Here is the input.
Amino acid sequence: MRALILSSAFAALSLPIWAAAADDTVNADEIIRKFAAKEAEFAEARNNYTYRQSLKMEELDGGGNPTGGKWEEVDDIIFTPEGKRIEKVVYAPVISLKVIGLTPEDVKDLREVQPFVLTTAALPDYIINYLGREKVDEIGCFLFSVKPKKLAPGKRYFEGQVWVDDRDLQIVKSYGKGAGIAKGQEFPKFETYREQIDGQYWFPTYTHADDTLHFKNPPLDQRIRMVVKYQDYKRFVGKSTIKYGDTVDPKTPPPAKK
Here is the structure.
């Protein structure tokens, strides 16, 4: 995210830190291995679901009141009759943001970082440390810090913390920001919550950000608020018809033998 006229940066991320209890004998490496495998299953499963994604970002004054600058969009993630997964724009009024400007990195974060998935294949890209145990809405969780080992050009990463359900070993909450090589840009802190869908997978359902942008030249603070909702998850069941050879009309007589 950047300023329309001047380059800008968000305030540096200040993450809360919890230390693991001295008598906590959790095998963190084993938990990481298992929840990453679950995340891989989750990622594959979510690719077979339709859902609606709605986003609203607003520019606010110092008291948290909207100033008129806004970005809204509603998209349906659906499948074509041929089974191809597509994103259909349902509602997208003209973007009226006045102080901040959207970049490709912001759009990529919306699709990939805010609904963060940490699969087995992604583990080598991150430094993951066990911080202890916490509860999220009465759900017992293991808490981990997550940070990219290095930033590769063109890639976006998550930096922050994840809460992993101590029973299902799936991420139920994440808190942090997008990271990557993006000159003159910074990105807001956000929280993403998941809910259990079809009694099996924890899918993201709600992302919230409320952060202040700090412009350096001239000094100017711009607060923003963003809400993303993921709703109406439904498993896609494809329909196909298999035909062997040419279609034959049963009333048509067989060809005469020579």
